[in-house]
Amino acid sequence: MRRPRDMLRAMFFGPFLALYAILFFVLLAFVFVLLEIGVIHYAFQMVGLPPELALLALLVSLIGSYINIPITKIESGSVHQVEIVNSFGVRYRVPMRYAGGGTTIAVNVGGAIVPVLISIYVLGRQPEAILPAILGAAIVAMVVNRFARPVPGLGIATPMLIPPIVAALVAIAFAGIFHVAAHVDAVAYVSGVIGTLVGADLVNLNKLGDLGAPVASIGGAGTFDGVFLTGIVAVLLA
User: Fold this and answer.
1) d(CA 137, CA 167)
2) Residue 74: which domain range?
3) 8 Å CB contact between 115 and 219
4) What's the pLDDT tens digit per position in 111-168?
5) Angle, nearest 10°, between helix axes 130-147 and 184-196?
6) Do 147 and 204 touch, CB atoms closer than 8 A?
7) pLDDT tens-digit map of 189-212
8) How many CB atoms lie within 10 A of CB 212?
9) Total count of domains within the chain
10) I want to staple 98 with a disulfide (CB 3.0 to 4.6 A). Which of 38, 56, 214, 223 is the partner?
């Protein structure tokens, strides 16, 4: 692996086509409505986030989905020439302007950094949830890894509904086993986002060199939608 100086600059590109970006911002507008009627307020209050911080996290996650921080570069095969790829019913645009000289491994701000920071904050406020959340994340990671698949030109993709459903079920089960019913929402959130990142992206890092992707972003295209939905749906389901 090599780390040229110009790799330190952040790269900006959307994890999906403009249509899906519009849909996510429509979803954000819907989230505002939910905030008004108290649904998301209730969900994130159960996790431990104040309403204002919950809204900020959603905004930063969506905006941050366009920001990818390069961390290293690996050798790869020939670049996949198709600019649009389809995975699990969602079409993604491959950032061809970054093609050449291998595959850049990056970390997506909205799909990796933000949810990890939220998880650390939640567990810091609810230490009783640490053990079940770690075990839950391991289970979610194993399940997600079975469904995740390498997509040429893109990276690793995962179905967006699997992580939140599994995380919610695991959290409910562990709430009884560990007697942490008061922290079931925290367990659901942390299990879902960490399990998705580990099971989909981190475990499959060794496969990225064979995909011909210009950029492979941890928590980015193919995984971002799963992480984003997990943060909301797993809490609501639990």
Assistant:
1) 8
2) 5-237
3) yes
4) 899 889 989 999 999 999 999 999 999 999 999 999 988 888 777 888 878 888 999 9
5) 40
6) no
7) 899 999 999 999 999 988 888 877
8) 19
9) 1
10) 214
Strand partners, 151: 155
Query: How many Cβ atoms sit within 10 Å of the Cβ of residue 126?
Result: 19
Structure tokens at 8: 């330190």
Give the whole-angstrom CA distance, residue 42 versus residue 146: 32
What's the Cα-to-Cα distance from 18 to each of 27, 91, 206, 208, rounded to whole Å?
14, 10, 30, 25
User: Is the sign of the CA dihedral 114, 120, 124, 130 positive or negative?
Assistant: positive
Coil, strand or helix: which one is 39? Answer: helix
* DSSP H or E run through 155: strand 155-157
187-210 residues labelled b (16+ CB within 10 A) or e (exposed): bbbbbbbbbbbbbbbebbeeebbe
Burial class for 134, CB neighbours closer than 10 Å (0-12, 13-18, 19+): middle
* CA distances for 30 relative to 25, 40, 179, 223, angstroms: 8, 11, 34, 22
- DSSP string for 42-79: HHHHHHT--HHHHHHHHHHHHHHTTEEEEEEEE--SSP
Each as own residue / partner, the long-range contacts of residues 158-161 (CB below 8 Å, 24 or more positions apart, any chain) are: 158/88, 158/196, 158/199, 158/200, 158/222, 158/223, 158/226, 159/88, 159/226, 160/88, 160/90, 160/225, 160/226, 160/229, 161/229, 161/233
> One-letter amino acid identity for 171?
A
